C-alpha cells in the first residue's frame, strides 16, 4: 500500500472509531473550511463554482497546508447547471464574489397549493416549482426540453468532476467525510417553497396541511438520500449524509414535537437501519432538545454542534452520538494564537476523555476573513499533540 | 390512470422488501439510470 493510502486509512479509521464512540489514538481534527478554501487558494467561491478544476486545486491546497484528518466536504455549487437553466434563486453577479441567494424566491408555492403538493410532491415540484425557479424551464417546448437536457449534461459533468476531486484528495491521503446531502421536509418547504415567514404562518393557519406535506415529502427525501449513497463508490466505512437543520431553534417546543421531531426521528431511524451515518448540523443552541436526541439510535449518527455548555452536552449525549465542533470560529478570526490554543485546551479537557469527540469549528468557514490561516494551523497542530490519548 | 413520473422509493421497498436490509456499500440492484434522473430533478428542487 502506498504512503498516501496508508495515511488515508489511518485518518479514516481515527474518525470512524471516534464516531463509533470509541477512543482512537488521539482526538481527530475535521476540516470545515467551506468556501474559505477558495479564498485561501487565491480564488473566489464563484470562480471555483464555475471552474471545478480550480475547486480541485483549492481543495488539494487546503489538504496539503492545513493539518486535518479529514475534510467535511468540498464546498461548491453547480454553477454551470444553475446558470444554464436561468436560476432565479442563485445569482452569479460577478466572478469576483460569492453566489447570491435571493430569499425573494423562497415563496414559490402559495398557501392554497398545499393540497396539490401533498397529493404528489414530486409531480408538483417538476410541473409547478421547477418552471417557477428556472426561467429556461418556463419556456414552451421544445426550448424547455432542450434546457432540461442541457441541465442534465451539466449535472453529469458536475458529478464526474466532483468524483475527480474526491480522487485527487485521496491521492494526497485525505479522506472526505460527506457522501451526500439531506434536508428535513419542513426545512425544504420553508427554505425554498414557502419562505420562513410563510411556514410559521402555515403552522398556525393550516397545521394539518403542513403535517400532510411533511409526511408526503419524507419518502422522496429518503429516496434522494439513498440515491446519493448508491452513486458513491463502495467504502470500507459507512457512507455519510450531511443534514443541516434550520427551523428547530426558532420553534416552540410544542411545535417542534408536533411538526419537526416525528419526521426527523423517522429519517434518522431509516438511515441507521441502512447503515448510513447521518451528520446532523445542529445549528444554534439545541440544549432544550437533548432529551429528544437521546432517543436516536446510539452510535448511528453524529452531531456537529454550534453552541453548547461543554459539560452538559458531553453528559447528555456521550452514550448516543459522537460530538463534532464547538470551537468558536470567531476566535480564529479575531483572537490571538495563544487565545485560540487556550480555548482548544478548555474544550479538549472536557470533551476528549473517553473518545466520542471530533475537533472542529462551530460552523463552516465561508468568507476569507472567517479565519486567519496561521490561527487555524496553530490550533490544529495543538489538538493533534495535546489530544493524544 | 395518471402516468407516474417515477416509481417512489417506498413502492420499490414494497415490491422488493429484501432491499431494505441490504448493505448500501455493495450497491443496489434497481435501475440506476432512473435514480440519476430522480437525483437530477430533486437536486433542481433543492437548489
Explain what the structure shows.
The complex is a heterodimer of chains A (389) and B (47). Chain A is built from 16 helices and 10 strands. Chain A is of the alpha/beta class. In chain A, the strands form 3 sheets. A 6-stranded parallel beta sheet of chain A has the order 5-6-7-8-9-10. Chain A has a two-stranded parallel ribbon with strand order 1-2. In chain A, strands 3-4 form a two-stranded antiparallel sheet. In chain A, helix 15 runs parallel beside helix 16 (373-386). The N and C termini of chain B lie far apart (31 Å). Classes of the chains: A alpha/beta (389), B mainly alpha (47). Chains A and B meet through helix 7, helix 8 and helix 10 of A and helix 2 of B.
Mind sketching the topology for me?
The complex is a heterodimer of chains A (389) and B (47).
Chain A: H1 3-19, E1 30-31, H2 36-40, H3 45-50, H4 52-65, E2 70-71, H5 79-84, E3 90-91, E4 100-101, H6 114-119, H7 121-133, H8 143-171, E5 180-181, H9 185-205, H10 207-231, E6 240-244, H11 253-273, E7 277-285, H12 290-293, E8 301-307, H13 310-317, E9 322-327, H14 329-334, H15 337-351, E10 357-361, H16 373-386
Helix pairs in contact in A: 4-8, 9-10, 10-11, 15-16
Chain B: H1 9-15, H2 32-46
Amino acid at each position: 500500500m502506498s504512503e498516501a493510502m496508508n495515511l488515508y486509512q489511518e485518518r479514516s479509521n481515527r474518525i470512524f472509531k471516534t464516531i463509533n464512540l470509541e477512543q482512537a489514538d488521539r482526538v481527530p481534527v475535521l476540516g470545515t473550511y467551506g468556501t474559505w478554501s477558495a479564498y485561501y487558494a487565491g480564488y473566489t467561491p464563484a470562480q471555483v463554482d464555475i471552474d471545478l478544476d480550480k475547486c480541485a486545486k483549492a481543495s488539494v491546497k487546503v489538504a496539503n497546508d492545513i493539518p486535518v484528518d479529514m475534510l467535511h466536504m468540498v464546498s461548491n455549487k453547480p454553477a454551470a447547471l444553475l446558470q444554464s437553466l436561468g436560476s432565479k434563486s442563485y445569482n452569479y453577479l460577478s466572478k469576483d464574489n460569492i453566489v447570491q441567494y435571493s430569499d425573494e424566491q423562497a415563496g414559490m408555492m402559495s398557501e392554497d397549493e398545499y393540497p396539490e403538493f401533498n397529493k404528489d410532491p414530486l409531480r408538483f415540484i417538476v410541473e409547478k416549482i421547477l418552471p417557477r425557479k428556472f426561467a429556461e424551464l418556463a419556456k414552451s417546448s421544445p426550448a424547455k426540453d432542450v434546457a432540461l437536457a442541457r441541465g442534465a449534461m451539466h449535472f453529469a459533468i458536475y458529478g464526474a468532476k466532483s468524483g475527480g476531486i474526491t480522487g485527487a484528495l485521496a491521492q494526497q491521503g485525505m479522506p472526505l467525510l460527506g457522501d451526500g446531502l439531506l434536508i428535513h421536509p419542513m426545512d425544504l418547504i420553508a427554505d425554498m417553497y414557502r419562505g420562513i415567514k410563510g411556514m410559521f404562518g402555515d403552522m398556525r393557519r393550516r397545521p394539518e396541511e403542513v403535517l400532510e406535506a411533511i409526511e408526503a415529502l419524507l419518502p422522496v427525501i429518503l429516496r434522494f438520500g439513498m440515491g446519493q449513497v448508491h452513486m458513491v463508490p463502495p467504502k470500507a466505512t459507512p457512507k455519510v449524509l450531511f443534514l443541516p437543520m434550520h427551523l428547530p431553534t426558532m420553534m416552540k417546543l410544542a411545535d417542534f414535537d408536533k411538526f419537526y421531531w416525528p419526521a426527523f426521528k423517522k429519517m434518522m431511524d431509516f438511515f441507521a437501519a441502512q447503515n448510513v451515518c447521518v451528520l446532523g448540523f445542529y445549528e444554534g443552541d439545541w440544549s432544550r432538545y437533548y432529551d429528544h436526541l437521546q432517543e436516536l439510535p446510539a452510535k448511528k449518527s453524529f452531531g456537529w454542534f454550534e453552541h453548547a455548555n461543554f459539560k452538559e452536552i458531553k453528559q447528555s449525549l456521550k452514550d448516543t452520538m459522537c460530538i463534532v465542533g464547538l470551537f468558536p470560529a470567531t476566535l480564529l478570526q479575531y483572537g490571538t494564537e495563544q487565545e485560540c490554543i487556550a480555548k482548544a485546551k478548555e474544550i479538549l479537557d472536557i470533551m476528549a476523555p473517553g473518545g466520542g469527540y471530533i475537533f472542529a469549528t462551530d460552523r463552516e468557514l465561508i468568507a476569507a476573513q472567517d479565519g486567519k490561516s496561521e490561527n487555524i494551523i496553530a490550533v490544529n497542530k495543538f489538538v493533534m499533540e495535546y489530544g493524544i490519548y | 390512470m395518471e402516468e407516474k413520473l417515477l416509481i417512489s422509493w417506498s413502492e420499490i421497498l414494497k415490491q422488493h422488501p429484501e432491499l431494505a436490509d441490504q448493505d448500501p456499500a455493495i450497491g443496489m440492484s434497481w435501475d440506476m439510470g432512473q435514480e440519476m434522473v430522480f437525483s437530477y430533478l430533486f437536486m433542481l428542487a433543492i437548489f
